[in-house]
Amino acid sequence: MTSAIKADPTSYGYYDAIRQSPTATFVSLVPPTEIGSYPGGRNLYRAIDEEFNLPSPGVILAHIPTFLRWTQIDQNDDNTEALYDTSDSGYDGSAAAILAMHHFNNGIGSVVDELEGINETCSIRLTTDLVDTMGWDLI
Question: Which residue from 55, 65, 76, 124 lies 20 to 30 Å from 41 (Cα-Cα)?
Answer without folding.
Answer: 55
